[in-house]
Each structure stands twice: as structure tokens, then as C-alpha cells.
Specification:
The chain is an alpha/beta fold and 382 residues long. Helix content is 45%, strand content 13%. The structure holds 3-methyl-2-oxobutanoic acid and zinc ion (ZN). 3-methyl-2-oxobutanoic acid binds at residues 14, 139, 141, 167, 169, 171, 202, 204.
């Protein structure tokens, strides 16, 4: 099995489904270019039949973005698929992403179909899509809650019908990492023609396990990950691109897989998407949060100042951050204060430094963070 993991970015489709988010065409184009520069392999640009805006988005990105696969989402319906093919027409590498639910819940309550009807509908959709483009991805919505034997039957049939990528979405974020890994591994081991397709992880974050599930899927043999910048998406969101990519990068010893992502652009793209969508990134967010490389306690600051790797497993420059940050608070120690004063151009004999340190602690008890202006005032007092 190849060690290359394909990054399928769905910020502009599943990500834009975040309640309260709307991107105009110019913003989508800016984000699209940034994602191509970042090195994503597949960019899901929208759901063409859903609105004229989505059609335009898929069509324009198909014209403008080169060196990347452009994907359009459809339901397993002829009209959806034909409209998607039309929108994707100018793309260098077009992909149709079609499919339908496979769980009993979705079949009974949403689709009102039997298992056999669902399977036949999926096969018909794949055949039509393959008559229009060479690259067809099939999604089995709500796979995380589906009966395993039915999932195996669907996968075998849609691969035989021409699907090249099989998406196994944990649509409701229900799975645990072990279950999701078993699901992917089970499909690969039990479906006779599984070697003819790439398997894809698509995990939602309802229980906060999207990243863990996605990575477990990679361990189970998936070689495509469906992700969004900052993990934005429906309800609690999708799997965060930056988390999966950095986990594969930092834990190369464990996953033994690579991506094409230019990691040093991650922070810049994260900020751009946050600004354009209005979705604020929490300070303690992994990889791209404002506090991700900031150290506030004396014990940690002392360690990091002696050797960064004592408390940091990611070199901040690897994601485009300038450096680790030493934040001065009431928990900071002498080492941190001395370091910051030195950066500001101050050095003091030990007795004078002790006086400044005492004064610093008093200010720190009043404020969440002691900033450079506070320090300048402290050292000016005699
Ligand atoms: O979560 C999901 O199941 C989806 C599919 C439409 C791929 O987003
Ligand atoms: Zn989704």
C-alpha cells in the first residue's frame, strides 16, 4: 500500500455549510488559490445543483485553478450528476462526488428505500457519472452507523460500476477511533475488488473525535482524508486539515505516511479562512490557535528557554509561525522575565533584577498578561 495520503479539501463545500457562513465568488477564488498553493490534491468546490451560486463556484474554480482535481458534489440523481458534469466541464481534472445513505436510519427515514433500492440507485448514479467523467467518488452517507455487510455489498457494487474513490463518511460523528479504523480495514479486507479504489475518511466532530477518527482510518488503510481549514463545517464541524497533516508529519514514525501539503503556509491559510468566514479560531486550537506555541508558566518557560523540545512537539516555523512565545503572567518565573527583558534590550545586576521581579509579580496578580509596555514602566521605576 502506498504511503501517500491524498488531501481532499472541502472547506468550500462542507465547510461553507457551517451555520452563519457565506462566501462570495471572489472570496472562494482567493481561498481556492490559497488551497492550491498549500498543496491540496482535490478541492471540493460546491454542490452545483443546489444553487446558481454553487454552480458558478464549481464552474469558475474549474476554469481558474490548475494542477488540482476539482470536485462537485451530487445526490445520486441523474439531473444532479448532469449539472455537476456541466459545471466541471472546464476543469483540468474533474471529479464527480455522488452517493447516498447506507445506514438503516437514513434508508428508512430519509431516503424511504430498501437496501436493494439504495444499492441500485447508487450503481446507476456511478454508471452515469462515469459516462461523463473518468474520476468518480462514491459517498456512503452515515457509514458510521450502518450495517457492515450492507456497506461491503455497496462498496463492491459501486466499484464494479466504475467508482474510483470510496468515501466512508462518519456523517454524524458517532464512531470511536477503533470502530472507524475497523470499518475501513474491514472494507479493504472483505470486499473482493477493494484494490481497485482508494478509500477516504470523512469524519464529523460531534463528539470531538473527528481528527482521531480520520487518523485511525488512515491506520486502517484509507489513503484520502476529507478535511476543512480550521475544521469548519456542519454542526461541530469537519476534520481539521491542519491537525491531520501535522499529526502525519510529526508522527511520521507511527503513521509512515506523507502528504503534499506545504505546512509552512498553514497558519496564513487558517487566518485567511477565519477572517473570510467570520469563524473565530479558539486560542487553544491545535496547530493554528494563538496559544499553540505560547508558554506561560515558569516551569514550562524555563524548559523551553533551555531547549524548545521540552514542551513543544511542533517547531512553530513549520506551520509558518515566527517563533515560540513566552507570555508573562503571574505563573511566570525569573527565567521568562529575564529573557523578555533581554529581548527588549534590558539587563540588570541581580539585586536590581530581584526588585523588578517582585514588582512584576504584583502587576501580574492584577492582569492576565504583563505586556511590554508594563515592563517598560516597571524598569523605569527606581
Ligand atoms: O458528512 C457527509 O456524509 C457528507 C457527504 C455528503 C459526503 O458530507
Ligand atoms: Zn460531511
Amino acid at each position: 500500500m502506498s504511503d501517500r495520503v491524498y488531501v481532499f479539501d472541502t472547506t468550500l463545500r462542507d465547510g461553507e455549510q457551517s451555520p452563519g457562513v457565506h462566501l462570495d465568488m471572489a472570496q472562494k477564488l482567493t481561498i481556492g488559490h490559497a488551497l492550491v498553493d498549500l498543496g491540496v490534491d482535490i478541492l471540493e468546490a460546491g454542490f452545483p445543483i443546489s444553487s446558481p451560486g454553487d454552480f458558478e463556484s464549481v464552474n469558475t474554480l474549474s476554469k481558474e485553478l490548475k494542477g488540482v482535481t476539482i470536485c462537485g458534489l451530487t445526490r445520486a440523481r441523474a439531473k444532479d450528476i448532469e449539472v455537476a458534469a456541466e459545471a466541471l466541464q472546464p476543469a483540468e481534472r474533474p471529479r464527480i462526488h455522488t452517493g447516498l445513505g447506507v445506514s438503516k436510519n437514513h434508508l428508512e427515514h430519509k431516503l424511504r428505500m430498501t437496501e436493494d433500492e439504495g444499492l441500485e440507485t447508487g450503481v446507476k448514479a456511478v454508471k452515469l457519472a462515469r459516462s461523463l467523467v473518468n474520476d468518480v467518488e462514491y459517498f456512503m452517507e452515515d457509514s458510521g452507523r450502518a450495517e457492515r455487510d450492507y456497506v461491503y455489498r455497496v462498496v463492491e457494487a459501486v466499484i464494479a460500476a466504475g467508482a474510483t474513490v470510496i468515501n466512508v463518511p462518519d456523517t454524524t460523528g458517532f464512531s470511536t477511533p477503533q470502530e472507524y479504523r475497523d470499518l475501513i480495514q474491514g472494507i479493504i479486507e472483505n470486499v473482493p475488488n477493494s484494490d481497485k479504489a482508494v478509500f477516504s475518511c470523512h469524519c464529523h466532530n460531534d463528539l470531538g473525535m473527528a481528527t482521531a477518527n480520520c487518523l485511525a482510518g488512515v491506520r486502517g488503510g484509507a489513503r484520502q482524508v476529507e478535511v476543512t481549514i480550521n475544521g469548519i463545517g456542519e454542526r461541530a464541524g469537519n476534520t481539521a486539515l491542519e491537525e491531520v497533516v501535522m499529526a502525519l508529519n510529526v508522527r511520521q514514525d507511527y503513521y509512515a505516511c506523507t502528504t503534499r501539503i506545504q505546512t509552512q503556509k498553514l497558519l496564513e491559510v487558517s487566518r485567511m479562512v477565519s477572517e473570510m468566514t467570520g469563524m473565530v479560531v479558539q486560542r487553544n486550537k491545535a496547530v493554528v490557535g494563538a496559544n499553540a506555541y505560547a508558554h506561560s508558566s515558569g516551569i514550562h518557560q524555563d524548559g523551553v528557554l533551555k531547549e524548545r523540545s521540552t514542551y513543544e512537539i511542533i517547531d512553530p516555523t513549520l506551520v509558518g509561525a515566527l517563533r515560540s512565545e513566552i507570555v508573562l503572567t503571574a505563573r511566570s518565573g525569573r527565567h521568562g522575565l529575564k529573557h523578555r527583558l533581554f529581548q527588549l534590550g534590558y539587563e540588570f545586576p541581580s539585586e536590581r533584577f530581584e526588585t523588578i521581579y517582585e514588582a512584576f509579580l504584583k502587576v501580574a496578580d492584577q492582569k492576565s498578561e504583563v505586556d511590554d509596555e508594563d515592563l517598560r514602566q516597571l524598569v523605569s521605576v527606581r
